[in-house]
Protein 1
Amino acid sequence: MSSSIETLVNREYKFGFVTDIEADTIPPGLGEDTVRAIALKKREPEWLVDWRLKAYRRWVTMREPHWGNVRYDPIDYESQVYYSAPKTAKPIGSLDEVDPKLREAYDKLGIPLKEQQVLAGVAVDAVFDSVSVGTSYREQLGKLGIIFCSLGEAVREHPDLVRKYLGSVVPYSDNFYASLNSAVFSDGSFVYVPPGVHCPMELSTYFRINAANTGQFERTLIIADEGAYVSYLEGCTAPKRDTHQLHAAVVEIIALANATVKYSTVQNWYSGDEEGRGGIFNFVTKRGKCAGANSKISWTQVETGSAITWKYPSVILQGDNSVGEFYSVAVVNHHQQADTGTKMLHLGRNTRSTIVSKGISAGQGNNSYRGRVYVGPKAAGARNYTQCDSMLIGNRCGAHTFPYIEVANDTAQVEHEASTSKIGEDQIFYLQQRGISKENAVSMIVAGFCKDVFKELPMEFALEAQQLLGITLEGSVG
Amino acid sequence: MTQPVYMQEFREFAANGGGEGPSWLLPLRRSAIDRFAALGFPTPKNEDWHFTSVSPIAEREFRVAPAARIVKLSPADIAPLTFGRADWIRLVFVNGRFSSTLSSMAQLPAGVRVLDLATAARDEPGLLERHLGKIADYQHTAFTALNTAFMRDGAVIHISPNVELDTPVHLLFLSAGDASGNAAHLRTLIVAEHHARATVIESYAALSGAAGYFTNAVTEAVLGDGATLAHIKLQGESERAFHVGTLQARQARDSHLVSFSYAAGGELARTNIYTFLGGDGSGATLHGLYLLDGTQHVDQQTRIEHASPNTFSREVYKGILDGASHGVFNGQVYVRPEAQKTDGKQENNNLLLSPQARVDTKPQLEIYADDVKCTHGATVGRLDEVALFYMKSRGIGADMARKLLTYAFAAGVIEAVGVAEIRTELQALTLKRFTGAAAGL
């Protein structure tokens, strides 16, 4: 429609810089030696090494899944680097000791690692390539008994908690990518909120892939003890490279009785160029377990990046009256492909779940919603509401919906509705004749389309998400 | 798996002339049986069979009934299955074999040909060669491949251009006597030339209650420009029967397929309704109703492929599940890049009447064009408490209110049936089943 939109679409990925930091990497390739080398570098206890090896041995027997509605060239797992850490002379004691270059990188990303934190009120753990580089606000959180640190640190300092919960929601044998992650996971964040504690600030992790040919395999573990509350934010970026990079993360959440965990993601990995060269393969397993009665886990995600996204944040609703939520906006442009959705597994009585998924496809992107709502025979009074809407911008994109609804209890009530349509020409026309430019009209319509999801995001993220969406989409009406 | 049994049977069948017919037929059969051998019976790992395991079919041995085992029936025996219309054009098949004595194809209007498949193979080889095996996909579908290898009995219906056939053509597929272990690979071809109009009813019924036989039916339909085909399938197999039935249609410009699929029988039953909207302005209206009880497993699959601009589809499927039954619905709407201005609506509603009943539903949209309007909805639940309360407040007892609402749930779809006799019969059946009332209210 307009050439200015064209230019906006092709706006460059602004996080595509490379930070030149000396890195401690292990040679590419994957074998038991690699697994042992990673464990050795991280000075891990024997039980964890064994667990990694079990995962690796299982992974070797597994086949890469191809049921997703995504196409890509085969991944050579042997050519990946499975561990890359920014070189530091000694363990980091405080944030001031973080390599200035790294700090600079995070400043570019706009991550408030320093004093801005006070204003932003966000406690940040930043994971650069494979290791966690610093966690802010620890003292303040520590007073409340909240543990927020890197997973590696948690293994050393809180081994009992890690040992009890690691793999309890996503077992090492869960799926191809989760097993791979279990074998080679490098670092990630660990959160524990003790009983009855309401975490006073948003906890945040920023993930960054920097080194070339490096896979990032972070693993996050969040435990909300009885009656606890925590809201957690995750952001991701990567430099522009013309080869694909693998990201296979695992996130596990455990909510005990009366606990609430809110997990928000703004995923903006490098998505490749207009021709579909490069970009991140984002194969992620995220799952939460509402283990106790009246617990709640809420996923909110804004997926604008990655060449391929394969991700299904799920909730196991085990405790009676527990609640699962999934709010998602997924945007694909150029040659991006997203196959994303959720699973809500209703096992306990009176469990409730809400799914709101908004997919936007532009360029030659393909966007699939794939979801499963399962109501078990014992889940009396279970309730699910699902809405998935797709918007198409341009005539070479695709939008697909694959919902699986499985109900084995007659007292359950499950509703699913979905719609797919073109962005409203008449709406654009109306806004234009009210004096609003076409670009603004499109972004207003899209913002309205996604409103139900954005309103679930914490304030800091809601703004970022809207901007990201704008960058990804502006100009795609053409 | 008993694949070798079918391979052996095919070798015998081919050695005996392969059901005769024109010279191109045997090679078609051979290529189909090869495909079946390669594909094997589908497993739940196959996405199309995710919720339905066919191992009860695959583990048993079913053979085509020898002519000697054909049960002799009189017109009086089939009278209850004729919707009170002895005058309809009717082909009757007993245990998978055509029965000319029970069939009535005498007074056909000009421009209408209705034949059994074996006769058509002899008298209309050209018509068969043009269409048979060209629409139903035996390359990727094991059951269609098996059917294509063994097809011998079935119907061929041809409606000439501009001919509007007012009388329905009724295909009655019966099982009678000791039909256990019997396989029926029924094959039907319906060709509605341009601007033709016809109604075809396929009904599957059992005269003997508990026979464990296997019906594997495939119907191919060709709709020319502006043609309208109403297809009504009534699946009332025996409670121990296995049924896999496929309707696969190809539609030209401005044609309209109006399908109604009723499924109430069988221990394990599957109906596939597939249509290809290949011409500008063509459309499909699909309605379905499945009523299950006991330990039945009934799977309803639909696939509408929008392959041309300005095509439309409307789909409503409803299921009522009682006992420990298991219902499956999979509705796929596929929109190709060239199918701009597609307008698709799909709905699937399920009512669970018992704690052991289970339903798996998968409404699916795959859209590769941008200027489209597609929606789908699916629900699973119990009767609306508010509606029940309202009826009780009007002096209707809780039990009767429940029955009436259950009936009303089904009645919405039954109203879509275009043939009055069938509509009335389905209404009476459903009313009786859910309210116990003989007729009327």
Protein 2
Amino acid sequence: MSDKKKELKPNTYKFDTLSLHAGYQPHKNAGSRQVPIYQTTSYLFDDVDHAAALFNLERGGHIYSRISNPTVGVLEERVASLEGGTAALATSSGMSAIFLAVMTLCEAGDHLVVSSQLYGGTVNLFRLTLPKFGIKCTFVKPRDTEGFKKAIQKNTKGIFGELVGNPGNEIMNMPEIAKIAHEAGIPLMVDATYQTPYLCKPFEHGADIVIHSLTKWMAGHGSSMAGILVEGGKFDWMQNDKFPTMTKPYEGYHGLSFAEEFGPTAFTMKARAEGMRDFGPCLSPQNAWNVLQGIETLSVRMKKHCSNAEEMVKYLMNHESVAWVSHPSVPDHPDHELAKKLLPNGRGSMIAFGIKGGKEAGVAFINNVKLASHLANVGDTRTLVIHPASGTHSQMDEATLKFAGLSHDMIRLSVGIEDIDDIKNDFEVGFRAARKPRLVSNQ
Amino acid sequence: MKFKVNNNEVYASTGGRPFDKKKPLIIFVHGSGLTHMTWVLQTRYFAFHGYNALAIDLPGHGLSGGESLKSIEEMADWVNAVIDAVGHKEASLVGHSQGCLVTIECTARYPDKIKTLSLMGGAGAIPMNPQLLSLAENNDPKAVDLMMDWAHGPAGHFGGHPVPGLYHINTGTMLAKSRTIQNTLGVDFRACDNYKNGFEAAKKVKCPTLSILATDDKMCPVKEGKKLAALIDGSQVDIIDNCGHMMLLEEADRVLTVLKKFITTNYPPLSS
């Protein structure tokens, strides 16, 4: 026998196993192998004492499905486990997750520093809607790391951005921006919808709150709306006096201090106890279940999404009808090296490209592809295309479009998992039409 | 709340209710490298039902000042000093894991002050795996990862936290990494490894005692917990199936139900 002692290794479950099992114990659910759909509004109390205990957060459990639901709870734990987070809170959409995160963090009079390259709806939330609640924002271009620092004010409560911006694929230098946020004593909130935890774990790079539109790659099949916010658990809410609603006694729960009582899960506890109670953007158990089905195959799908995307990048870069291609896998992409560090398992399946012939050619291309679906979504198993300037970002004026890095020749492509040759053949039809836009439109 | 013991600031959660000297005192003592937050699903109940529930952060842990205490005996004396510092003459003690060693020793040293003793995942001795001890003393985060692996039973590894949306293992990991590992977990593991008086201390315990054990506890197995309980006159034992060492989170409701019955029977609350 060898004298060499065996090195101890933790045997906690790995990503693919957690995708299938985390958050659920069959023996507590009648042995049901599949997660049951708890299609109910409310839950019986054992007695008055039990009811009071649940309302006072003295014990865990469910009261009313606006606040929590067992099926939704499995989804929340599963995503928390995959992200390496302490806790998560699922919502009815990605947008409601962003709104809930902001309202948990901020009060009237507060300020946020926000990346300028975002989904159009998110831009409008920060630019137009949040100011109605007294929350102001300063936009900074995602590559302008120093700009984030300069934009921080005394009343700034956080930095928000999409890790890879929609639709231009500009990447925030998350580790550096996290340092800036933490030096200022504020958290970094990252929308990592494009990456999923399979491609990037933002908590490992300094993020404090991660937000997903689960509607996209996590659910993956274009069937269900859902969002989630996930807490990293490292941010110290008590380090300064910037977050009194986290650290001071809260009248709404008998003087509870979320930070003192719940520490690494304080943000999620407050978002649920206050935000879900008062705003109510709850996720339906049926949609939670649909998302869980998607997450079971997340790593399998993401590998195929990414390999198809890299094939499409090569195809587009060599195509006579294409003026430019933006994808982090392209060596001359300005964030290529950063992408290698932040996205080690693949650079994602979102491609932006410019079509020769500008807006008119873009419209002809979109109108003539048959396999690729023209719609306002990304992250479906099917290939999707859109012309952002006339679609997802059409509510922006010319100056805002320019600041967000959008051009009129830009096509946004969400690469699906179809056979790659079929996608290319479909694009050939679109490009042929784009080269003769008037002829095709007159047919 | 914050107060001072031996000139160092001590943080103790009061379970969301103000401290009230008229109410009987329960002190909750956390395990190695952890904090008061491990007790959140027990303390709030007692705080709302006629008790002062103090979940303390040991010195150098969580939100408490000072340096970590180097021996179980010092920690036992420190818990006694906490009782004095908050102006009480007596208390019930509840411990988890290392906290069991501390509370047994404290009960043996101060038998007139301690009215009930509740032990969760306890044993008379907790000898440490030498590799794990070395990792913790060398500030290696792998020590926390190993502890979280061993501390959760097979069911607990899947999650299923009683509070919707919380994931056990990552929450525990974050608590154990909230301060410098070698100064908390490293010192605590060494204190556990050095402590040899658990069985002798148990023989001196005369107050009502409860042991909650778990069938899948790898860190303090059921047989070790039973061996300890057998030395304490009239000790009650409750064993939870399908549960690991982190029973206070993995089976929080069951633990609270058993604890509630035991403490309210043997150390009644202040009636409202």
Protein 3
Amino acid sequence: MCPQAQFDTVDGLLQVTVDDALWHDLAQQLKDVLHFDQLSCLAGVDWKDSMGVVYYLTNTSTQEMVHVKVATTDRDKPMLHSVSDIWAVANYQEREAYDFFGIIFIGHPDMRRFFLRNDWVGYPLRKDYDTNPELNPIRLDDEQNEDYTCTYVEDENGKVTKVDGKVFEDDEYVVNVGPQHPSTHGVLRYRVSLDGEMVKKVDVVSGYIHRGIEKMCESLTYPQTLLYTERMDYMAAHINRHCLCMCIEKALGIEVPRRAELIRLMMDELMRLSSHLLSYGCLTMDQGATTAFFYGFRERELIYDIFDRTCGARMSMSYSTIGGVVADVHPDFVKDVRHACDVIEKNLKEYHQLFTGNVIARNRMVGVGILGKEDAINYCITGPSGRASGVHCDVRKTHPYSLYNEFDFDEVIRTEGDSMARYMVRMDEMVQSIKILRQACDKFEQCEGNEYVADKVPKMIKLPAGHWYQQVEASRGAFGVYLESDGDPKPFQKPYRLHFQSPCFNLIGVVDLTCRDNMIADLITITASIDYVIPDIDR
Amino acid sequence: MEVKKPKIKSMRYEDFKDNEYIDSLVEQLNASGVNVVVGKLDQLLNWSRSNSLWPFCFGTSCCAIEFMCLGAARYDMARFGAEVARNSPRQADYIMCQGTITYRMAPVLKRLYEQMAEPKYVIACGACTVSGGPFKNSYCVVKGIDEIIPVDVYLPGCPPRPEAMFYALMQLQRKIKVTKFLGGANRKEKRMEYVPEDK
């Protein structure tokens, strides 16, 4: 297809290294001919002599993956070709790469910063970033609205020119929502253009909780980086940590004991239950059903108790570690899990009685905020929101990890793609999680040995040079970790680049699409049903 | 009139270990002396104020989930008269800052604090707000919200347990009980500070 490209196999996946000039055509062919229709991960990397982007592509019908590396050696004004016209998810992802590395994407419709203030000096994830606090002090003056945007256009001769554009037209009526707003579930800001009560366009302004986790990880050892995974999507703390542990284990070639793997899996499913219960509580409260919120939280306390007894903390448990888990489970663990399963299963009926059949709830959710299957794939929407649009995207089924292929459970798929479907997928997934937990309890009791951590884990973790990518099914979608190591022989090796591909970052990409031509009041229900966690977006 | 150490129902005074701060406030009050009538009225006002503290919903990350647990049935903030979480700073008595404050959020937090009506209090909830916590080395995290706004109670933990949040709340109640309301707490901010110079 592209004879100039270089092909290797890294980490069990085909790696294509291609020149930037050929990249856009190759990308188009990869999508049209080979049907790599989903851009799963886009990670910018600074290789010191060059700078570029690693793209992970997925074919959603065969679940094959391939990754493409595109780089440029120009450090002063690095430019690559945008693929946002091919995969829509690249729109925000490329803005992230621009924000962190200063890579300009030619042909990108909206080349603005995403996480940092527009008056920020420098590009923080570059290796030569100047950390001098005088360059970027705490600015207490109010930030100016970004009304202007720009696009870089290339003509036939290869000359790139900057074309200015506007985010909103002068005669548009723009309403500001957030960053301090009860129903944005944190600190996210929308600028909504309205026509009467109908939404015409939503401009997402993010970064109010951008904490620079990826940069901080580059100055910590591997076991130290684990703690940040729990503070991104705190409602998928165990799952995210599991993912990074698996990625490091894959790089080291460590095999985790079966008992540890079972414990991790049960913790993951408990976390998913807790997350979906919270999502139920928040969604109902956003629509005014305050009572339902208390029901959801009542059951969450049961799960918190299990975490509390085994891990010693209710949130941010720090339980998984490289090679297994930190400590063995509490003696009553299995009993508690079975009890929690029984209680939640019984009470799920109550939830449906309380909210699902409610006339107001149905009127506000059925047929509102429809996301089609093609759009969901194009915007890389995974997790419950993707499955509500009919995409087969459960990583537990598509790329089975841990022990999931031993378990009998169904992938919940709906085809409506509206707010109601997204809500119902979560409710049905809880039933599946309970099913998995019950099977896991049986397997756990039969499991021989009491080894909870692999004994071959080295004290100093040193990875060989290379890069790895690992995906798991977090509570809100596919969570990916891109880990690159330079094989540094010094005792305390640090990751060269650690990129977290968070599901919520993709979820806000469809807010504009789903809210358009709906009422402003529906913006609340749609975003609540999409169910994102802001620190996971901003990292 | 002598001001006594404040009493909190169902928690003994000895249970609070480190209270030099409250003690110093009591000493300060006793040193300045107060009229019996004004003092009694002050105590009545402070008693009512300390038992109806309305929090401002300001959650940026993990701590906000624990705060929601605080509002739910098991922990039930309503026992302390603090269940009316307000979404507008105008209606709130104190701001419990839950979660990391980044450089981008800093001016917003400052503005929200300024919008709150006097007397207003701040609880720095969680390690991030106390000192930057695990994100201290980041390029865009404020290392403790006391760099931006004054803090009354520091509450460490990542995230703090709901019990710890109650401790912070009770500590704030105690502080309110030993302040001079009339002519004191409600006149903290100087009026001239916000008038632009050219006017």
